[in-house]
Amino acid sequence: NDKILELKNVVYSFRTYGGEVKAVRDVSFEVRKGEILGIVGESGCGKSVTAQCIMRLNPEPPGFFEGGEIFFNGKDILKMNKKELRNIRGRDIGFVFQDPMTSLNPTMRIGKQIEEVFLGRTDISKSEVKEKALEIMKLVGISDVEKRYRQYPHELSGGMKQRVMIAIALVSRPSLVICDEPTTSLDVTIEAQILDLLLELREKLGTSIIMITHDLGVIARMCDRVIVMYGGKVVEKGTVSEIFYNTAHPYTKGLMQSIAKLDTQKGEKLKPIEGTPPDLFFPPKGCPFAARCEYAMDVCKDNPPLEYQVCKEHVTSCWLQHEYAPDTDIKKQGAV
Ligand code: SF4
Ligand code: MG
User: Fold this and answer.
1) Domains and CATH numbers, the chain
2) What is the pTM of this model?
3) Element (DSSP H or E) covering residue 68
4) Which of 45, 126, 212, 216 could form a disulfide with 41 if both were Cys (CB 3.0 to 4.6 A apart)?
5) What ipTM was predicted for this assembly?
6) ABC transporter domain spans which residues (predicted)?
7) C-alpha span between 190 and 17 (Å, rounded)
8) What confidence tens digit (pLDDT) does each residue in 216-261 have?
């Protein structure tokens, strides 16, 4: 069994004063050993909430699971008690966020912050921690480690801070690291360096990585497989080459055309197709993309599309592939 993580029909919502927000709606996918899996979509599509669900990072309440299972190495995370969850977080699953400043302590030297994580472990003695901290700083490509060790977060550049965060995430050599837009706040050159570092670490340590991004360029550069999310659902998933060169879902097609067309500015919100994503207080009954889809048919409005297996490593949820589909242009273009 090469699956390290498997989400099955996960439904996650938030109770708010305005009602229930259906953030994650029936999401299923797996992460395999040593792979980099991308999750791509516009902001609000549910990609970050999905990632947070895996580690139960959202406060519950207001967040709650309406259904589903999340197996990590065969054990359902949703059935774990607080202690088991704490053990998994940080030890077996690491997390790297977009903004390292929210996770680093501004009043504490870098070296001490890394050491603290080591000290939480029983197999490492106090006298060893400094050596261990310097070692992991080198592993993530920090040069001049003795100097960096003594510095405070504000003395480091954004890219260097993100290296420190990656070091912290890697302290216990987790088998899975979840990265949520880890390079979105960095400039292009530094972004490339951080992405290369993650690729190198996967190579060296065999770590599985979930890479959450709104940037298809990041997916192309990094990932083995990709999940495309829209309106809290997975609309298409497959290998990167299938998704890029044999795109089946109209939403994914829109994303592809948008990178071909516009020179996306960094940090800009991905909004490739006219219209706005669905209101997740009142999610559409049928296909989440129906209101913006140029191929929408009668069947789409009220019926959630079934999964269609394009090929062994490619699944899409769209009625176009089914018997209801009229002979549309997208079919003639050979996309379906
Ligand atoms: Fe468009 Fe219908 Fe396919 Fe949804 S199911 S993407 S509305 S064609
Ligand atoms: Mg996000």
Assistant:
1) 3-92+172-332 (3.40.50.300), 100-171 (no CATH)
2) 0.91
3) strand 63-72
4) 45
5) 0.96
6) 5-256
7) 41
8) 999 999 999 999 999 999 999 999 999 999 999 999 999 888 775 5
